[in-house]
Write a structure and sequence with these properties.
CATH superfamily: NADP-dependent oxidoreductase domain
Radius of gyration: 19 Å
Distance between the termini: 48 Å
Organism: Hallella bergensis DSM 17361
Keywords: NADP, Oxidoreductase
Number of domains: 1
CATH architecture: Alpha-Beta Barrel
Number of strands: 10
Shape: globular
Order of helices and strands: HHEEEHEHEHEHEHEHHEHHHEH
Structural class: alpha/beta
Largest sheet: 8 strands, parallel, barrel
Bound molecules: NADP nicotinamide-adenine-dinucleotide phosphate
Protein name: Oxidoreductase, aldo/keto reductase family protein
GO molecular function: oxidoreductase activity
Helix content: 25-40%
CATH class: Alpha Beta
CATH topology: TIM Barrel
Pfam family, one: Aldo_ket_red
Number of helices: 13
């Protein structure tokens, strides 16, 4: 258990968000599919940089910068950390320290679907797992409900109806306002869309990887399906975990995700890829933009995309990423 220092206790409740946070609201938000909800074009993900291993004050500063600039959507999952669950605990501390008065201005999501606790009920897509996991998530985040609850991945062994009915019942119980699915194959997405619509809990959003290096949702027709059926689309790892920034153009910095080597490994950075990234960077420079800003803008300009779900290890990175909201139209960027 974290021992709070006097300084931290003193800081509790002193955060006053910027009064200008919604000044550019007409530029900052997209409607999510055909729902009543608008999401920020840039959303903040808690996969990295918000765990128990990370410095709380740095995580806290990133969320302040985000909220001060109109980023109202924070995305979590049960197993974000490390250790598992600790990003949600950070969210709980942030609620207590800073964000409780602003709960109704925040759109907080969490997920279950990957390995979380030992035994047969802590993984995949059973009703047993989803229901228990959300209970745990709410306790860790000090919340009564989440705005959005996701099935984090498709489970080929659990009947699709069982997973989906659990999502429906979670909404009926008031523990989530909306539901989403992430990384489901297109055919299963179609079935989910039909099932949830028939049960009066329409699918709010689909979460999948889409960036300049991975265009599968476009090539496979997933993005088109979402757009045509009024489902929002949010792109995770929109910067390919940092590859689509200036982070690796001149070597591998010791404090980077690639240097840590668990989720982004050095073998990804082939000479061909580096060459492509240099060319993209050149194009961005000619446009008067950063590579990160241009890469995010490219995603946001794909018809049907609601939001890019970025990660950031500093407020400076997030500041740069926000530039995409102002970017000029992009014609064609080849692979
Ligand atoms: N549904 C799913 O299965 C799934 C899977 C993955 C992610 N997600 C969601 O998507 C969110 C984002 O994923 P991600 O962290 O991979 O996103 P990302 O935005 O592609 O990568 C974020 C990382 O790139 C680097 N970076 C970001 N902005 C930068 C900038 N302006 N200049 C230089 N470097 C920059 C930082 O790494 P350094 O540490 O090197 O500074 C940062 O942590 C997650 O937090 C999570 O919410 C969902």
């Amino acid at each position: 258990m974290h021992e709070r220092t006097i300084k931290e206790i003193d800081l509790k409740g002193t955060y006053l968000p910027s009064e200008s946070r919604y000044d550019d609201a007409d530029k900052l938000y997209n409607r999510c599919g055909r729902s009543g909800v608008k999401l920020p074009k840039v959303s903040l993900g808690f996969w990295h940089n918000f765990g128990g291993v990370d410095a709380y004050e740095r995580s806290r500063a990133i969320t302040h910068y985000a909220f001060d600039h109109g980023i109202t959507h924070f995305d979590l999952a049960n197993n974000y950390g490390p250790p598992y669950g600790s990003a949600e605990e950070t969210m709980g501390r942030l609620m207590d320290d800073d964000f409780r008065p602003y709960r109704d201005e925040l759109f907080i999501s969490t997920k279950a679907g990957y390995d979380m606790w030992p035994g047969p009920y802590g993984n995949w897509g059973s009703r047993k797992y989803l229901m228990a996991s959300l209970e745990q998530s709410l306790r860790r985040m000090h919340l009564d409900y989440v705005d959005l609850f996701y099935s984090h991945r498709f489970d080929p062994e659990t009947p699709l109806e069982e997973t989906l009915q659990a999502l429906v019942d979670i909404v009926r119980q008031g523990k989530a306002l909306y539901v989403g699915i992430s990384r489901w194959p297109l055919e299963a997405l179609q079935k989910a869309d039909e099932y949830l619509r028939a049960h009066d809990v329409p699918l709010l959003i689909f979460q999948d990887r889409l960036n300049l290096l991975d265009r599968e949702p476009i090539n496979k027709g997933t993005l088109d399906y979402c757009r045509e059926h009024g489902i929002g689309f949010i792109s995770f790892s929109p910067l390919a975990q940092g590859l689509l920034t200036d982070r690796y153009l001149n070597g591998i910095p010791s404090d980077s995700r690639m240097a840590r080597g668990q989720f982004l490994t050095q073998d990804k950075l082939t000479p061909e890829l580096l060459d492509y990234l240099q060319k993209l960077n050149q194009t961005a420079t000619e446009r008067g933009e950063s590579l990160a800003g241009m890469a995010l803008a490219w995603i946001l300009q794909q018809p049907g995309v609601t939001s890019v779900l970025v990660g950031a290890s500093s407020t400076a990175q997030l500041e740069k990423n926000m530039e995409c909201v102002q970017a000029k139209p992009i014609q064609q960027l080849s692979m």
